[in-house]
Amino acid sequence: MRLLVVCLGNICRSPMAEGALRARLDASLLAGQVQVDSAGTGDWHVGEPPDRRAIACAAGHGVDIGGLRARQLRAVDFDRFDWVLCADEANMRDAARLATPAQRERLALYLPWSGGKGRVAIPDPYTGSNDHFEQVWTLVDTAAERAVARLLHDADSGIIGP
């Protein structure tokens, strides 16, 4: 199973979500069975590390995302990943432009896909304070916990293999 988390610039939300999801997967029965990556719909930050505030926030929760580098979402990603999970509806619209109709079946908003109720979008903390990054961490870490539960259920039911 391969999951791709997508936001606008791939320096705040999606690398934080990638880090939280990897950490939760590594601590689960799915360790080594699910690959996670992240990308941005825009190209402004390609090759750059995550925002320093995102790195610090994740590190404060024991997760190192400092080695990640931003990249732009490409059409080929829809062939490489089982799910493309977007931070918000604008990201999803931009991503959908790169996908075929069949590939759009594997495009979703990350929070609802993970089983979250209520909030649909992960707010962009880029212009906010450290508190905004903490709020995003809470959202993506909770979503990661739910995503692992979903994937474990799918593995138990044979939807995904070992």
TrEMBL record:
<dbReference type="GO" id="GO:0004725">
    <property type="term" value="F:protein tyrosine phosphatase activity"/>
</dbReference>
<keyword id="KW-0904">Protein phosphatase</keyword>
<feature type="active site" description="Proton donor">
    <location>
        <position position="124"/>
    </location>
</feature>
<dbReference type="Pfam" id="PF01451">
    <property type="entry name" value="LMWPc"/>
</dbReference>
<feature type="active site" description="Nucleophile">
    <location>
        <position position="13"/>
    </location>
</feature>
<comment type="similarity">
    <text>Belongs to the low molecular weight phosphotyrosine protein phosphatase family.</text>
</comment>
<dbReference type="InterPro" id="IPR050438">
    <property type="entry name" value="LMW_PTPase"/>
</dbReference>
<protein>
    <recommendedName>
        <fullName>protein-tyrosine-phosphatase</fullName>
        <ecNumber>3.1.3.48</ecNumber>
    </recommendedName>
</protein>
<keyword id="KW-0378">Hydrolase</keyword>
<feature type="active site" description="Nucleophile">
    <location>
        <position position="7"/>
    </location>
</feature>
<feature type="domain" description="Phosphotyrosine protein phosphatase I">
    <location>
        <begin position="1"/>
        <end position="150"/>
    </location>
</feature>
<dbReference type="InterPro" id="IPR017867">
    <property type="entry name" value="Tyr_phospatase_low_mol_wt"/>
</dbReference>
<dbReference type="InterPro" id="IPR036196">
    <property type="entry name" value="Ptyr_pPase_sf"/>
</dbReference>
<dbReference type="InterPro" id="IPR023485">
    <property type="entry name" value="Ptyr_pPase"/>
</dbReference>
